[in-house]
Automatic annotation (TrEMBL):
Keywords tagged on the record: Signal
Signal peptide: 1-22
Protein's UniProt name: Sugar ABC transporter substrate-binding protein
InterPro entries per record: Peripla_BP_I, SBP_2_dom
SUPFAM superfamilies linked: Periplasmic binding protein-like I
Organism: Nitrincola iocasae
GO term, biological process aspect, one: transmembrane transport
GO molecular function, one term: carbohydrate binding
One Gene Ontology CC term in the entry: cell envelope
Periplasmic binding protein domain: residues covered: 25-286
């Protein structure tokens, strides 16, 4: 399948339609108590408000069956378009979501989490970022800061989540390039700050000499690692810590000289772009099967480009 690289400005110029022939866009998200998903939701709502659309965002509470039921309700309510950030991306889960859409021709946008399917039905697309970029971008900068020497501990996201797998694989690929570097520890923090805090506190108790660099699959876990250092009375600057997402909390931490690296997964562009892609399909415009919003490296040197 062909991949299409579209930066937000291109997305908007391609998808924006002066006359909006839609009234109601329905959205299903895995959970609301997640910083990244909150930014996605806020930007979906903001873009819909700009276009005078009614938007409803449902919380699936990380339950596949609840998300399927939401999609069925959206179809029954005759939503003009459906946006789904899938709870699970396995072929079975995605096919169930497509079955919940039924024989309707309601446009559907899968957002942020890439479905593990080979082909998409008509009027079904994906919009998100290419995860092969994020882990390698993060680890290359951490390696550079470490002068290409050091022991790396990986805080991994949830099992079964493609982003977790791909980010970790590409961190390892970068580490393997440099003879002076190795991965010595790896554990799942399930994207959560509190779980990462617990893991890194244990690492500090049991094997503090086994790592000098932490590569976390997301910012929340990176911030949990920094909290572990602080609670242990250790200066976080004795370690290099990198995250992914460039959340508000992560940028604030970087401004305090605590977080060394993050990678912007552009939630604002993704949220706005999902509305625009949905509207393009509603209005009969041709939309690429996959719409890529690039990652961007964020460091203390360029952070001012990313803060409000």
């Amino acid at each position: 399948m062909k991949k299409f690289l579209l930066v937000l400005s291109v997305v908007l110029s391609v998808f924006f339609v002066e006359t909006v022939s839609a009234n109601f866009v329905a959205v299903s998200m895995p959970k609301f108590d997640d910083n990244f998903q909150t930014v996605l939701r806020e930007n979906i709502e903001a873009r819909a408000d700009q276009l005078n659309l009614i938007v409803y965002v449902g919380n699936a509470e990380d339950q596949l069956e609840q998300q399927l039921e939401q999609i069925r309700h959206f179809v029954e309510a005759e939503a003009d378009a459906i946006i789904v950030l899938p709870v699970l991306t396995t072929p079975d889960a995605i096919n169930q979501m497509l079955e919940a859409r039924g024989n309707s021709d309601i446009p559907m946008v899968f957002l942020q989490r890439l479905p593990e399917i080979d082909t998409y039905p008509e009027k079904v697309v994906y919009l998100g970022s290419d995860e092969t970029e994020s882990g390698s971008m993060q680890m290359e900068e951490l390696a550079r800061l470490a002068a290409y020497e050091g022991q790396v501990a990986i805080l991994q996201g949830a099992e079964g989540n493609p982003a977790s797998t791909v980010r970790t694989d590409y961190v390892r690929e970068v580490v393997d390039k440099y003879p002076g570097m190795s991965v010595t520890l790896q554990e799942r923090g399930n994207w959560a700050r509190n779980q990462a805090l617990t893991i890194v506190k244990r690492w500090l108790d049991e094997s503090p000499e086994q790592f000098s660099i932490i590569a976390a699959n997301n910012d929340e876990m990176a911030l949990g690692a920094i909290m572990a250092f602080e609670q242990a009375g250790i200066d976080p600057n004795h370690y290099l810590v990198g995250g992914i997402d460039a959340t508000r909390d992560a940028l604030a931490s970087m401004q305090k000289d605590l977080l060394d690296v993050t990678v912007l997964q552009d939630a604002a562009s993704q949220g706005k772009g999902a509305i625009d892609a949905a509207l393009a399909m509603i209005n009969g415009r041709e939309v690429p099967e996959k719409i890529w919003v690039p990652f961007r490296l964020v460091t203390p040197e360029n952070i001012q480009q990313f803060v409000e």
